[in-house]
């Protein structure tokens, strides 16, 4: 049409610009070899500049820097072995600096004076050699082997004296076990049944009653476990020996389960002894504290994750669970020893030989864990069964200590100073006596007691008694199954 104005399309303009750009880039590419794309130009140009700078710097020699002397290394020890000693090489050899005014003026020496000094030095050297020879002769007279023999003899004498004291203590206890039977535990428990430690408080227990399972089981202030955020938990530190502590705690509530796992993480706990029967565990719904088989629990209020990896049945009534506990970057493994053969307010298997054997096996298993991580003894209230096991551990430690006698009353007082309701009943107290009696009589002391009883009697025509049968009879008579 003649009247219509035809507008030029935009595409040919773009093509022209792009063509011009290609022409320019093509003209440059002949000289420099750079491609037409602008992005590639910038990248390659910057890379070439960087490459040129690196070449120039490699040609230059490195600058010499003043090396500062290193600081002295502190003494690093592994036990009693010193790995690195502290040698400070930065200090000057002379202790006191000499002032320029006090510098002596050195005069040139004559030949005669030099000869006299050389003669004196030779005489001093000969004297020092003679002294060294005399010292070596004296040292040869007393060799190192004799010194070591003397030390070993002293150690043997000390060990013999300690063993004799231990034998006398254990023999005296064996006589009491044979003579007194169950009256021994009854007389001692009446002395300590109403014991209350002096000067104790329970302010935190009263202020946090909703976190306590029982209103009449007190958690003392001076021995309670405190968390890093100062929250309250019904748990107490108890001294088992001079080198080992334990934590006695109640079975957690639903509201305090996360606090329990926070305590496990902060105290670096490696094992928990759970003293609950299976009906008690099912009635409490223990799965909110400990996860089920091959399951996980999440405590979102404290960002803690607990999972069970393995479960092993060790003996009848004793199972072992392997758990993983993680909180942020922290991750550790924990063993739960669940013993289900100990009923509430009673003793396991009525105190027979099977019960005694199992408790000693559990005790030997818990001894394998490091003493730096305290074990946790947990029962329904954290006092009856957990306190009885803590008393057993404390009494066993005092049995092997240097004290001349075993005082079960003082042992229970030490436990109750930290956990006021520990070992609540007479059967539980007598069961600890039974465990110790089995340990002593099976170490050969039963034979000594039987021989002495035979010598005391006038008639020597009696039949010989089996020590194993006698010890079983003694243990059976010592055990109190029910409260009188």
From TrEMBL:
Q: Where is this region: Disordered?
A: 1-167
* Tyrosine-protein phosphatase domain ranges (all copies): 207-439
List where Basic residues composition bias occurs. Answer: 12-31, 38-66
Entry-linked InterPro entries: Oocyte-zygote_transition_reg, Prot-tyrosine_phosphatase-like, PTP_cat, Tyr_Pase_cat
Read off the Pfam families from this record. Y_phosphatase (PF00102)
Q: Which CDD domains match?
A: PTPc
Q: Where is the composition biased (Basic and acidic residues)?
A: 110-167
Composition bias (Low complexity) maps to: 95-108
Question: Which molecular function terms from Gene Ontology are attached?
Answer: protein tyrosine phosphatase activity
User: Know the name of this protein?
Assistant: Tyrosine-protein phosphatase domain-containing protein
Q: Which organism is it from?
A: Caenorhabditis nigoni
- Upper classification of the organism: Eukaryota, Metazoa, Ecdysozoa, Nematoda, Chromadorea
